[in-house]
Amino acid sequence: MSLHDDGLTPEEMVNKGFLLTWVKRAWTSPALASVEEYFHPDCVVTGMAPEVLEGIAQVQAVYNTLHSRVEHKHAEVSFAFLKGEHFSMVMELQGVHRESDVEVVIEVAVFGRMKDGQIFQVHNVVDYSHMYAKLGMLDVAKIRTLFG
């Protein structure tokens, strides 16, 4: 199943709309993105930062840090799968690094679970390599030499 609603239950369709709205608001309209509105008070988030984030305050702090460094421009969800309260999505996030004015791309896959109509548990698999290479923080030539 891709982004089509074929075969989704009414609850899954509501959850899908909720998740896609979060991605769009969080990345392209940060002023409209309220972590408290979208995340369960007892949420647990992994993969977004080196540590496990527990609760809205920690998720909001990491979100604010990311937004302070990257001006969010565009979010494209290429895959979304929902089954009951569980979900997975693959997306590409585009922005501009504020300090260098360099356009960057971050690719993300997320796997999670909803509870009480909010995001409860989520694990992010984030590929920062494009962004790090564009910002000169990753020696692509050396990686090619070492790994072919």
Distance between the termini: 35 Å
Q: What is the succession of H and E elements?
A: HHEEHEEEEHH
Annotation, overall tally of beta strands: 6
At CATH's second level, what is the architecture? Roll
CATH class: Alpha Beta
**How many discrete structural domains?**
1
Rg, Cα atoms, Å: 16 Å
Q: How are strands sequenced across the largest beta sheet?
A: 2-1-6-5-4-3
Describe the global form: globular
Count of helical regions: 5
Strand percentage lies at 35-45%
Helix content: 25-40%
Largest sheet features? 6 strands, mixed
Structural class determined from secondary elements: alpha+beta
Query: Under CATH, the topology is which?
Result: Nuclear Transport Factor 2, Chain: A
Mean residue pLDDT: 90
Low-confidence segments, ≥5 residues, pLDDT <50? Answer: none
Please explain how this structure is put together:
- It contains five helices and six strands; from the N terminus they run H-H-E-E-H-E-E-E-E-H-H.
- Strands 2-1-6-5-4-3 form a six-stranded mixed β-sheet.
- A hairpin with a 4-residue loop joins strand 4 (86-97) and strand 5 (102-115).
- The chain is 34% helix and 41% strand.
- The model has no long low-confidence stretch (mean pLDDT 90).
- The longest helix is centred in the first third of the chain and has 19 residues, at 10-28.
- It has helices at residues 10-28, 35-38, 56-69, 129-134, 140-147; strands at residues 39-46, 53-54, 70-83, 86-97, 102-115, 118-127.
- 21% of the residues are buried.
- It has a single domain (10-147), classed as Nuclear Transport Factor 2, Chain: A (Roll), CATH 3.10.450.
- It has 148 residues and is of the alpha+beta class.
- Residues 25-121 form the SnoaL-like domain.
- InterPro entries: NTF2-like_dom_sf (IPR032710), SnoaL-like (IPR037401).
- This is SnoaL-like domain protein.
